[in-house]
Each structure stands twice: as structure tokens, then as C-alpha cells.
Design brief:
5 helices, mainly alpha
Amino acid sequence: MIVRISPVIPVVANLLLAALWGLSVFAGWGVEAFCSDPGCADRLDGVVRLSFLFAAVAACCAAAALSAPVRRGDKNRFTVLMAAGAVAWVIAEGILFAGGLIVR
């Protein structure tokens, strides 16, 4: 028995992970969570830059999966790209979390 998953689920997952990363970086959630002294925010900037590399890969994977109708028609390619995007978002979030604990 093959279970089909709606393509909306990976799209929403990628959007939620992107929102979490964006709020952690741009809305100050990361600084609020990890920094209590003024110098910590500067140290956290280096972590954000490293995390941005994976976030950029994740955004590119999601955009590639959604951009061309040919890719959307190929369910395997769509699934692989969206899964790669989700994994890259999780890595970006993990870098923020681990890096935040280290620079604390």
C-alpha cells in the first residue's frame, strides 16, 4: 500500500521552518534567548552568518521545487528538493541553537 502525501505539507513545513529561522535572526528571538551581556550579540552575529549559508541553500531548494511547472509535475524531484530544503532549514536552526549555547 502506497501512502500519498499532499504536496501542501512539505511546502507548509518549509515555510514554517523559514519563519522560525527568520524570526530567530531578524526579529531578535536568538539574541533574546541566548544573550544577556552586550558582547554576546556581536558573537552571535558570526553564528548567524554560518547559519545563513544553510538557510540560503534551503530557500533555493524550496524555490527550485516550486518554480518550474516541469519540476512540480515530477513528484520525485519535487519531494527530493522539498526534503532537502527542510533538512537544510533544520541544520540552519541547529546551528543557531548550538552556536547560541556556545557564545552564551
